[in-house]
């Protein structure tokens, strides 16, 4: 292991470490623009220059491997002059338009020019001008500011798996652009905004709306898919202005999917901000007391068997616990959090988790994807799969719809018949799984939300048990969820009790009263005379079918626990307050229970969470994945020949928030037009 002397400090680093990394381990600060620890090394900005003794000139520390015996100086006079020269060159063509630039106040070029620049320039020639580029409805370009660090190009190619972005021409004529002058077609495109060290690439929806010092910053959790990406919500007053990713190495690293980043305008449209009651076929705004009275009157002396509840995809753990307890007080066992009808049981927690963990993908050495398109269902997990694929020796196979995943894979077939062949060892990929040391499978909701979903689950578990996917130190059986609230609901037991009705049965019109807790991805056409109580944040499918509407809070408006697809409980924080008369969901259910004369046994969020921990102890360990032993399953039956169909047909319009977003609607229209025939993507 090489040992270096950095500014008089000795530091020993791993082989392959760069001088820049060694300097930072020794406590020295090295400026940079092109270097990024998650991207390949470009070495083209020269801001990271340092002095190495016995070297004829300054070295680019980002591109120089650390070697034993190196003596490095990071703050000598010659280094200072070199950095001033590099900065002077970078600013030759930069327009210096900080007052009108959205990057102002959080710009790397601005900060480093102050810290390492000379304060003057010897160049007074006319600056170059570059035409703006079309990168779609999300990315605003001002390419005159571009310093050609190529971070965006390397991210698109290496992380996102999209080869649309690159550098054209040479020298002063070099420009960063999409090759075909069309929108950058990637579910992760917004990350190039964060990577850009200048104001060349900024957020088009956020443009000219706020300055960073005006914003309140709240650390929270994304809920628009089941990954549980860590985010920062930037708000001003009662409005969310933007959403940015936070660093979490085991979940989202430092990336965020476009739907999660840009759907925030949907938080203020189509909102439910007061209770409603349906009178003479029309919804009429009323007060909370009148709404509760209408529900209480309907439930009076009603048999619990005639009451049911469905929890939706965006329901937090606390609201689902309160809903379950309320149904218990009403004597009902008709309860379900699987609004898509997925064949998931609660017999063993490992039956419905992404057991390998998201970070565990990097340890796997073979992968079989069943009935899923992770590029649309969990773009960040797909990026992690691509990261592992780029390391090499990682065979990947797909059973289901033939789609472009962004990496090479073997397409085995369309449906359960192919899966059965693998399970019986009649497919060559079965041998690949058997020979692998840490094989894994990913079962998507497209394989489980079918009439034969239980049989498909049984085949997937058979493969796991027979092919060595589950050992003492490895569990390669993974369920990929698409709903942020699903795992918490299963953890808390929101499934039908003995003789209870599931989602499909409750939606058939067989109940007198049906509670919908943010359940909008459902078919309400057969509800008949069922009295529907909808509690949620947006006027979508559920609200349209409701007889009483109780306005709830969106995920940015409440403190809540969310459990991601790998079973990791995480804390979401309130950034703003709900609009109008809307309330946090568990408080609505608590107040309703009091009106019904059977009050729920908690008066505060802490008391509610204590009850949750009694039901599922792992809720007490925030950001920790509990050890989950491999369990038994009663799933079974026979599979049919119908091909798997992926659950997401339009990546940008998957939930009530994104469907209420004008930005997402524009993305849906834009990217459905630029799909290239033959890529297999689904919009």
UniProtKB/TrEMBL annotation:
InterPro entries: 2Fe-2S_ferredoxin-like_sf (IPR036010), 2Fe-2S_ferredoxin-type (IPR001041), Mopterin_OxRdtase (IPR006656), Mopterin_OxRdtase_4Fe-4S_dom (IPR006963), NADH_UbQ_OxRdtase_75kDa_su_CS (IPR000283), NADH_UbQ_OxRdtase_ferredoxin (IPR054351), NADH_UbQ_OxRdtase_Gsu (IPR010228), NADH_UbQ_OxRdtase_Gsu_4Fe4S-bd (IPR019574). PROSITE patterns: 2FE2S_FER_2 (PS51085), 4FE4S_HC3 (PS51839), 4FE4S_MOW_BIS_MGD (PS51669), COMPLEX1_75K_1 (PS00641), COMPLEX1_75K_2 (PS00642), COMPLEX1_75K_3 (PS00643). Keywords: 2Fe-2S, 4Fe-4S, Iron, Iron-sulfur, Metal-binding, NAD, Quinone, Translocase. This is NADH-quinone oxidoreductase. The keyword 4Fe-4S applies. It holds the Pfam family Fer4_Nqo3. Residues 1-78 form the 2Fe-2S ferredoxin-type domain. Its cofactor is [4Fe-4S] cluster; [2Fe-2S] cluster. Belongs to the complex I 75 kDa subunit family. It catalyses: a quinone + NADH + 5 H(+)(in) = a quinol + NAD(+) + 4 H(+)(out). NDH-1 shuttles electrons from NADH, via FMN and iron-sulfur (Fe-S) centers, to quinones in the respiratory chain. Couples the redox reaction to proton translocation (for every two electrons transferred, four hydrogen ions are translocated across the cytoplasmic membrane), and thus conserves the redox energy in a proton gradient. Residues 215-271 form the 4Fe-4S Mo/W bis-MGD-type domain. SMART domains: NADH-G_4Fe-4S_3.
């Amino acid at each position: 292991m090489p040992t270096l002397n950095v500014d008089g400090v000795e530091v020993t680093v791993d082989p392959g470490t760069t001088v820049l990394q060694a300097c930072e381990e020794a406590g020295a600060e090295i400026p940079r623009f092109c270097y990024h620890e998650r991207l390949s090394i470009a070495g083209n900005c020269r801001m990271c220059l340092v002095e190495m003794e016995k070297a004829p000139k300054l070295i680019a520390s980002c591109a120089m491997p650390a070697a034993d015996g190196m003596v490095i100086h990071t703050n000598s006079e010659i280094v200072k002059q070199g950095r001033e020269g590099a900065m002077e060159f970078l600013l030759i063509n930069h327009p210096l338009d900080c007052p009108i630039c959205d990057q102002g106040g959080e710009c790397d070029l601005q900060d480093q020019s102050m810290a390492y620049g000379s304060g003057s320039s010897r160049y007074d020639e006319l600056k170059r001008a570059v035409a703006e580029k079309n990168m779609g409805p999300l990315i605003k370009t001002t390419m005159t500011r571009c310093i050609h660090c190529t971070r965006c190009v390397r991210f698109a190619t290496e992380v996102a798996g999209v080869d649309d972005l690159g550098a054209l021409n040479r020298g002063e004529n070099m420009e960063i652009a999409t090759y075909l002058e069309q929108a950058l077609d990637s579910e992760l495109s917004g990350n190039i905004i964060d990577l850009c060290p200048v104001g060349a690439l900024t957020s088009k929806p956020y443009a000219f709306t706020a300055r960073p010092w005006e914003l309140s910053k709240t650390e929270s959790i994304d809920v628009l898919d089941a990954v549980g990406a860590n985010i920062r919500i930037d708000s001003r007053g009662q409005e969310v202005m933007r959403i940015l990713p936070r660093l979490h190495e085991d979940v989202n690293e430092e990336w965020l999917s476009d739907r999660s980043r840009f759907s925030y305008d949907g938080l203020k449209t189509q909102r439910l901000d007061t209770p409603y009651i349906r009178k003479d076929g029309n919804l009429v705004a009323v007060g909370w007391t009148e709404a509760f009275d209408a529900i209480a009157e309907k439930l009076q002396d009603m048999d619990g068997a005639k009451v049911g509840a469905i929890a939706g995809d965006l329901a937090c753990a606390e609201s689902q616990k309160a809903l379950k307890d309320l149904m218990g007080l009403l004597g009902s066992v008709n309860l379900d959090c699987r609004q898509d009808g997925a064949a998931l049981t609660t017999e063993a927690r490992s039956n419905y988790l992404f057991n390998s963990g998201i970070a565990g993908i990097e340890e796997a050495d073979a992968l079989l994807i069943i009935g899923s398109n992770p590029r649309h269902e969990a773009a960040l997990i797909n990026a992690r799969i691509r990261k592992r694929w780029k390391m090499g020796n990682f065979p990947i196979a797909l059973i289901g719809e033939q789609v472009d995943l962004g990496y090479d894979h073997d397409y085995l077939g369309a449906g359960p018949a192919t899966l059965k062949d693998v399970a019986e060892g009649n497919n060559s990929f079965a041998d690949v799984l058997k020979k692998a040391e840490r094989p894994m499978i990913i079962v998507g909701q497209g394989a489980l939300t079918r009439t034969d979903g239980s049989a498909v689950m049984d085949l997937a578990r058979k493969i796991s048990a027979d092919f060595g996917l589950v050992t003492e130190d490895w569990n390669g059986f993974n369920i990929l969820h698409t709903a942020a609230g699903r795992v918490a609901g299963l953890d808390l037991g929101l499934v039908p009790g003995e003789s209870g009705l599931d989602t499909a049965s409750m939606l058939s019109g067989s109940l007198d009263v049906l509670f919908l807790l943010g359940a909008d991805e459902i078919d309400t056409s057969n509800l008949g005379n069922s009295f529907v109580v909808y509690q949620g944040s947006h006027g979508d499918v559920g609200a349209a079918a409701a007889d009483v509407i109780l306005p709830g809070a969106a995920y940015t408006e409440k403190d809540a626990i969310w459990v991601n697809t790998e079973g990791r409980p995480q804390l979401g924080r309130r950034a703003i307050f709900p609009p109008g008369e809307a309330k946090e969901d568990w408080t609505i259910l608590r107040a309703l229970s009091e009106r019904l004369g059977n009050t729920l046994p908690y008066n505060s969020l802490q008391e509610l969470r204590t009850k949750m921990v009694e039901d599922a102890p792992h809720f007490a360990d925030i950001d920790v994945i509990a050890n989950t032993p491999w369990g038994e399953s009663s799933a079974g039956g026979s599979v049919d020949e119908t091909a798997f169909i992926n659950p997401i047909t339009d990546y940008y319009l998957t939930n009530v928030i994104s469907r209420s977003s004008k930005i997402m609607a524009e993305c849906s229209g834009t990217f459905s037009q630029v799909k290239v025939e033959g890529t297999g993507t689904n919009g």
